[in-house]
Structures are given as C-alpha cells and as structure tokens.
Amino acid sequence: MSGYTTSGAQQPSTGAAADASTIDIHSRAVSYTCGDCDGDVQLKRGEPIRCRNCGHRVLYKKRTNRMVQFEAR
Amino acid sequence: MAGQPDASKPKPRAVAPRGTKKAAPAGAAGDTQHGNRALAEEGAAVAQQPVDGADEMRRQKAPLSSSAKDEFAAMLEPFYYGKALSDPIDTARDKWNLLPAFLKVKGLVKQHLDSYNHFVDVDLKKILAANRYVRSDLDPKFLLEYKDIRVLAPNRAEEDTNSSGHSKSTVTPNECRLRDMTYAAPIVVDIVYTRGSSRVRRNNVQIGRMPVMLKSNKCVLAGKNDREMALLEECPLDPGGYFITRGQEKVILVQEQLNKNRVIVESAKGIMQASVTSSTSERKTKTYVIQKKGLMYLRHNTLSEEIPIVIVMKALGVLSDEEIMVLICGDDAEYQDKFTVNFEACMQAKIFTQQAALEHVGHRVRLTKKFGRARNYHLEAIECLANVVLPHVAVEGTNFRTKALYIALMARRVIMAEVNPKLVDDRDYVGNKRLELSGQMLSLLFEDHFKRFNHDFKLNIDKVLKKQNRAQEFDAFSHIGALKNHITLGIERAIATGNWSLKRFKMDRAGVTHVLSRLSYIAALGMMTRISSQFEKTRKVSGPRALQPSQFGMLCTSDTPEGEACGLVKNLALMTHITTEDDEDPVRKMVFLLGAEDITMQTGDEIHREGLYSVCLNGTPIALTSTPKSFLVNFRKLRRMGRISEFTSIYINHDFCEVHIATDEGRICRPLIIVENGRSKVTARYLKALRKGTMEFEDFLTRGLVEYLDCNEENDTNIAIKEKDIGQYTTHLEIEPFTILGAVAGLIPYPHHNQSPRNTYQCAMGKQAIGAIAYNQFTRIDTLLYLMVYPQQPMVKTRTIELTKYDKLPAGQNATVAVMSYSGYDIEDALVLNKASCDRGFGRCQVLKKSVVPLKTYANGTSDGIDDKAAMQPKNLADPKYGAIGKDGIAQVGARVSQGEAYLMKSVPADTTASARGNVQMKTQEMRYKLPDPSYIDKVCITENEAGTSLIKLLLRQTRRPELGDKFSSRHGQKGVCGLIVAQEDMPFNDQGICPDIIMNPHGFPSRMTVGKMKELHSGKAGVLRGTLEYGTCFGGSEVLDMADVLVQHGFSYTGKDYLTSGITGEALQFYVFFGPIYYQKLKHMVQDKMHSRSRGPRAILTRQPTEGRARDGGLRLGEMERDCLIAYGASQLLLERLMISSDAHHVDVCGRCGQMGASGWCRICESERAVRRITMPYAAKLLIQELGAMNVKVTIGLEDEFRSAEYDYEA
User: Fold this and answer.
1) Staple partner for B380: which of B362, B509, B667, B775, CB 3.0–4.6 Å?
2) Percent of chain B with pLDDT strictly greater than 90
3) Where are chain A's structural domains?
4) pLDDT of residue B1141
C-alpha cells in the first residue's frame, strides 16, 4: 500500500501502453484476482497491471467457467 | 553471530552473553508456560492409559499453534520425541538433544546467514572507513567524508525515490520471485562535505541497492514465526541463505581455498619451498622462500629475480652473520651446517651493510610505473619490503624486526623440512583450508564497486570544478544520485551471472553463483551446504579428491558427486560451523596478559632455545612463552569463561615449538562436549534444563560445557565417541556420532550397514526425488516444478530427517516390497509395479511448467500486446486450435491444451526498426503448445517487472501416473526402472491378503551389499505392525533383535519373510518372501520426457543433416562406433543408406576433366558439358569442398567409371 502513488518510475513503464489512445474502449473488461488482497480487478486491454484496491501488481486470471472434463485414471 | 558483540567494540565478553540473556526471558517465559500446559496434557494422557507408555509416547506431538514461534519448538518441547519431562535422563543417550538446540541457534544454513550479516553489519563499515574521503584534484578545499553506511530494509526499486523511510515497504521475497524483481535493500551513507565555504551534513543518502539474503537480519523474514511466514507466502521450512535476482533464486556456493597468511612448506620437483599467500585489504601477494641447489632465496612477483636469503635478512636490518644464523637455525648443528653456504652468496656479492643490501634488493624491484627521474633504489627496496613482501606482517615505521623474524621462520621451515621430510605440509589437510562464504565474496565485490563509485564521483566533481565561472554554487550531493546505478547494477549482475571479475585482485571467476535447485526440498538444502573447490577438474592428482581423515565431523563423508567433480565438491556435515572474523587486538592483549613475552624483544638464541615456544597469532609469531602447556590451558579456560570469542582456536605444534592462535574467518569448526577429570560436563541436570527450555545452546557455550573446536585444535584433543569410552586422558565427548554425515546423507536409514558407494549414490539421487518442495509450492511459478501427489514420511526415519524436517516435506512413499522374482520384466534392477497401487496414487506426480511471455517495448515506441480479437473471429471460433483462448486473448485457467493448440495470442508490431514510427501495423503471433502430451492451464499470472515490462506467466500442469520406464529408487542407491505394471489380481499375496506395491528382484542385493535396505524393511515392517515410526539413524536406530521380537509378537516370522500365494496360479509359492515396507522415491527421469522417435523431420540449415536432440525432433545418430561395426561387418549398402541417403544426399554436377563442381550440366571452368556427370554425395562433403575453396584450398574430384569402358576418356 505504501507505494501506491503515481510515481515517476511508473510513468515510463506504462508510457506506451497506458496512453488514452491505446486503451481500447471497445474491448470488454476482463476480471482478474489480486494476488495480495484477493479482490476483483476489472482490466481492459492496455490498462496498467495493478490492483485498484491495494496497489499490488501481481494479478491472476480467474478459472474458466467452461466445463472441463478430466480423464481420471 | 548471536550474542557476540560488534568487532568494533573492545570485547567485553563477560558482559556480552548477558546481553543476549536479557532478551531471552520473554521467550523463555513463553516456553515454560507452554511447557507447563503441555505437561498437564501429558499427565492427563498418562492417566487415561496408565501403562503402555513407551509405545504411546512415541507418538509425535503436532506443534501447537502457540508454539508456532519457531520451527524447532516441537523438538524442544517437554516431550522430546516421546520423552516427557519426568522421564529419567540418560546422558549417554539423550545428549543428542543438544543437536536440535544447536540447529535452533545455528540453523542448517547459518554459515551463509552469519557471513552475510557480518558483511552487512561489520565489513561494510570497514570498507567505508578505508575509503572514507573523496577529494578533488582541482579544489584543495573540497572534502567529502563518509561518516556511516547502513543497509536499510528491503523495498521495491520504485519506492527508493519517493519515500525515504516514511512508510515500510510491503515487498516480500515471493513477490520478487513472481515479478522477476531483485530482492534488494537500499544502501545509504551519511556524508559531510564542503559546499561553498560551509560544511554540509546529509544523512541517508542512497548510493545503491544491495541484494538481500533471505532470512538474514535485513530480510523481512528474519525472526518471523510460522504463521507470519505463511502470510508472506513463504515456507517456514525454507532454509534461506540465497538471493533473489531478477526473479531467480541464486546461491553463492561456499568456496574452498588454501588458507591465507600461513606458511606452507612443499616440495615440488626436488625444490623445497615455503610459501605464504598474504592477504590484506590492500594487497594479495604470494611470497616464497625456496631452497635451490643448497642455496636459499626469497622469491616474489615484484622482484625480478630470486634474492639470496642472507641479503634479504641484511636488508631487513639483521646485520651480523651470527645473528642471522641463530635466528634461522638456533643452536642446532645440523641446521647450521645446511645453512652456512648461504653466507658465501652474500660474500660473493660483497654485501656487508644494510645500505648495500637494500641497494641490491632495490635494483631488482620491478616497477609498475615508469618514472622519468632516476630511481632511488634504497627507498624502493624499503617500500617493497615493507608493503609488498609479506604485507600481512605489519611493519611499524622502519622497524623491520617482525618481518625479519617471519622470513627467518620461513627459512627455518624449509631447512627443517629438508632434514625431516615428514614436516612437509599437506595441502589437503582440512586445517590448512579456509572456506570463503557469500559475505566475503560480496565484500570483495562491494569494495571494488565502491572504489569505482568514488573514482567516478571524483571525476564528476572535477569536471564541474574545472569550469571557472559556475552559475550556481557547486553541490556535490547532486552528483551522487547519477552514479548509484553503478553499484546496484554491478552487484546485481555479478550475482545474476556468477561472474566475479575484480581487477584489483586479478580475480576473474565464473560460476560463483548457481540457481538454487528446487527439484525437491532436499535438493535445495543440499545446495546450501555445498562446497566447491578451486582445484581444476582436469588435473590428474588424487590428493584433493581423496577423503581426508581430518574431514571427520566437518565435511560429510558420503555426499559427493560421481564423475569429474568427485571429491572436489563436498558438503558440510550437520554440526559444522564456519567462523567469521574476530578482532585480533583483544586476543593479542590476552596473550601478553597470560605472561608471554614480546618476540621482537628476543634474540634468535632465545627464540629457538629448548623448551621455549613461540606464540603465533593467525600464523605470525608475536610472543614467546616458556610454559606452553599452562599458557594453553589458561587460554582455553578464558575462552570457556567467555572472555575470548568462542571461535578462537588455540593449539600446540610440537614440531615447530609453536602455540597457534587463530581468529580468522573461514575456519571449519564444530561443537563438542567438554570432559574434565573423566566426566562429561554436560550432565543430566543441564539436559533437563535444556528440555525445560530454561537453557539454550548459547548457555552451554557460556557455561563452558560445550566448545567449538576447529580442525587444528581437534588434533590436541582426545575425543570419546560414547560416554562409556571416556577414559583418563579424554578431553572431549562427541555430541552425536551421526553428525559426521551431512543433511543429504542423513536421509539414509542404517547407512552404517551399507557399502559406502551406495550411500554416495543415494546422496545424488535423493536430490532428484520428486516430493513436496515447500509449503508455498502452489504459489510459486517456477520454470519446472515436480510435485508428488501423495508424499508420505518414511516409516523408518533418522534423527537427521527430523532435524532437516524432511518428514514435513517428504519425497517418496512407503511401498510394500516383495523381494522375489516375477515374470522376466524385472531383470537389471527393473521393478514390477502393482497396477491397483498406481490407481490409488502410488508414484503419482504433477509436473508444472512455466511459460513466460514478456510484452516487449521496442526502440521506435511500439510494443507487443495481446490480441484479444483474433480467437473471437468467426472463422476461428469453431477451430479447436483456439479452444483454450479466453476473451482476453490468454488461455483460460483450467483449460486443456494439446499439441499445436494456442495458449496466448500476442500482437507484435510488424516493423520494429527505429525508422518506423507512429501507427505501425500489428500482426498476430500465437504461442502454441509444443509437447505431445496435453497439459492443463494451472495458473495465469499477469504482472509487471521492475523495468515496467508486462509479463504474462502461464503455469501448465500435467498429472502423471507411473508408466513403464519411469525411474524409482529406494534410499540405498538402488535405482531401477519400472519394467512391468501388473494387475493386482496377478500379484502374489500373503495370508492377510496384502499385495506388494513393488516387486523387486533379489539379485539387487548380493553385489550391492545394501544391508541397510534389508534392515529398513525389517524395522519398517515391525513399525507398521506396531503402529510406530522406527529409527534408522546412523550408528544407532532400532535394533534388529527388538524388531524381530515385534514381528513375532504380531504373528510374523522374525526374519521378515512371509508365506505368499501366487496370484496367477493360486498355488503357494515354494519359498518364503522377504516382504515389507521400503521407502521408495520417484526420480525426475520419466519416460514421457525422454520418449522420442523420428522418421522424417527437420534438418539443420547449414549441413542439411537431420537436427540433433529430442527438443528439435532430431534424428537418431549412427555414430562412429556404430559405423566401425558396420565397416567391420562389411555392410556397405547399409552404411551408404545411413550416412548419405537417409541423411544429406545431394546431387552435384561434377566435371570429370577439371574435377570441379558445375551447375545444370555445364562446367564453367572447362566451358563445356562434355565431361560433366551428375553424382550423389553427402551435402556436408560438398560444403566442405566449398569451404576449403573459400580458404584457397582447391579440391578436385576424380571421377572413375564403376564399369570402365573405352567410350569416355576424360584425358582426351
């Protein structure tokens, strides 16, 4: 939580990607899980990878809701 | 080093331990409280079941949540593995309780942590003190002084700039692993410098970042209990002691070296020489005194030729020949005869004064820099002798007495070794070795980078000061920030690549660091205790590889690799401790207080007088004593009282009449129980206190019950292995004999019953076993991770297993083994597996593979991205190739991917050259799954590294059941592959209907002589029947007779053999079968990763031959030896097919007249098509001809008809 300020170091990192032009308004947001607080993070294409709640930068994709069939042997 | 004061403080040893004690009560109180409660519980348990206590108490107590304080709590609890507080203590058997107490304080990787802590807390400040001033050449008024240096708590690189200590960083090691970051902490200094006319002080100026060793005192994991560790997503059993750089776990292996600043006498090719590698913070040089053709010389790299010893002595101010003679030879007539010739050399050179001798030496000093002016030989000689030759012997002013004495000592050693060849030193003796740890390595690295930093800093300052009129006042502070990356990147690069290149010490070592192997818990642990040697592997000398008797208890006797590194790579034993540096000065004071006299005040006659012993501090003689024995005893007493650091060692060398005291770093030592007057000082009373928790290992040291001995001091002792062996002359008692083995060899049950190579094989295989890796194994995303689905702790444990906590992170399963022949698929150590066992989960494992995709940013401002639309396009929707892809363009978690299916849709800019800017066309690149066996997506992690690059990490999971060809091994170096999987119906069974999980062929036993395995089965079977875990500790463990009794009690044969019925015929087997549980490990070598075949496939571009290796779908090579066989057999057509037709056959047009290659039936050289013939040859041969041509070597091909006719005549 400490580093959750828009610091200078962050700027070049997201620089190219986070430009308003590259964030695709048409693309749907996909929901991820934060690795620290377990909260839901809605991310669109090109958005910076960061939990909005705690500022953690490790996000995990959620499990598919499609059916998965295992061969148990 | 807990409980030890800073080296900077003047060692008030009597006070220091008290300081640690003060901290203890809080913990101790908790312990006792907890102890009482546990005691009450045990009381209740005993009340319920009055008798049958022994069996009941073997049950292990799970650590209660309140005891989560530390991991060794279980072992220090009132029930000490089935022993309650009230149980009688038998010192002979229970003294091993000291071992967990030792490991609680020291830990298994304490050497690394101690060394790193010492570096960060002490060495760093010393380095700063040695380089504290930065001056400018241009402005004499400018002065920058470093006041202090500290390493702060670890944080993220981005937090450096904005917050300087306002809020605590939340960085965890696991975040660094996941985000490919470096786990590092800022290094800050306090500076005072000149700005304008005033002196300005600035505190907490950052000069770089220091990688933090996990679990060191700077690490966030330091002092955390199990629960806090879990919150940080870290495994409490993880040993720590490694670094995380760029997301990789890196270990700085322990390096073994010959000791520094000691005289070593060697004889090489008939030349006797005494050499000293002097190492000080400024210099590292080697000085020799050699005996050549009866004459003695001093040799040094900076001296252009060898200088006769007498001249050197004269230059050092020992002028009279008699004095030289006496200093070196004493009054021994034999030595004198040998040495007399040396005076002639001096006479011939006509050197009689110190002045002349210095001139002589000065003429032979090699100059590093060329000076235009005339050389002052005299001063150069003084400079050289004072600082370059033997720099570790300090010279005060121009009093060269100490140095003269040292050189005389070296000369004396050479003469003594000439007379008595037994006095030649053994380089391989462990006492002559020092271990270099991560702290020392980092300290060298940091010093180098810090010096360069200061140098660059000074250049920057000079550059500004050079300008005459500056717009604003010059502030040196602004220049520090620009340079801090140098130190950060320099250290990070060295650790990440393992290349230590320091120009100052001419050190250029590669492979200093290694990636921590996470194949299994024990592999990681084994890596932390590994020692690599500096010896070349190619040399054909067996000395360094051989097992040294002095290794006993210090280095593991079993754990070494096979093959080329055999004996060069060693492992620490369980109780080993490696010393860090202690301050010399208090010890020096102590030496004089104990009545020894300053050696520089003595004449040679006195030094070598009968019965007088010189006292050497770290190899340099400093004093003289006439009562060496009482001096030694008194010194030891002081050490046992805690007045001197416990790691100081003292011993007598009677050959050279010397008492040696060592305080230097890198000595290997181990604790032993002190025995006085035939009685062990550790009595039942103390063990009771230890059990109760009122005493800790530290207290045993301060009370003088236990002490550390290094290899040299061990030679002065008489150590009893068991308490009953204590005799009149015994001085020490072994804490536990099984500590001669290391952590890895300690897994073997009954190793003392095995043939020794088998134990060595197991040490190699234990590291390849699949099992649990760490408690945080599911949060890790490693390149390759093998996990066992149902790991079990072994039925037959050892004490070491408990101490290393292998029972909590096991790698194997207890298989019921029938030792019998079955089918023919069990020859050559193959195993027959029970199919039903495999169905139930025997040997089932998971393989997790990582696939990382960094989204790169290119020079023209374009960057990679993820294409979330491509898979959603109508034409792709039905395509199963994109079935796994989710709506964000990344594979869905839980989806199954098979060969050729896409798991990530990446969009890459079509043009990444710097010229292309603005809107660049993007093209879609799909990442495809390549392996033939399908995987499931286990985890998808999206993150960002320190540089700001997005990373997409996918974890792919496969679950594998044992199949034909998978490799298994017991813990006795008995590996075998699965030869057959048999249905349970066909397996033999005993009266109770028990089927074996594994059938092993009895032929595995006679030649391997692994009796330990039989004992394991025997004890394990008894344990299963009785419901207890048995012990197979080295030199101890459950007795065969007891186990046989248990078997009989439960209605089994005492031999462990059972009557079995054949599952195939239903008849009784005509023999009794040795039947019971053996702990089996599944090794990482699995058929699925190796299986490979090819008919046609890819070819290498250059040679057009089939590619090599499974990963490239390569061909199977018919090598030279196979070729030789075919030639010998005469199968020429087969050869032709294998080597050309099926490989790189190529049609070439060759001109028969000029022998050159043409094209399209036309020879350009002859300008005709008359003699051109089309032939088939290997493409590699054609390539060779052309490559030779490129080097101006002409190759002509001669053509000849197979069936010659007159029709063609090329010569025409």
Assistant:
1) B362
2) 44
3) 10-61
4) 92
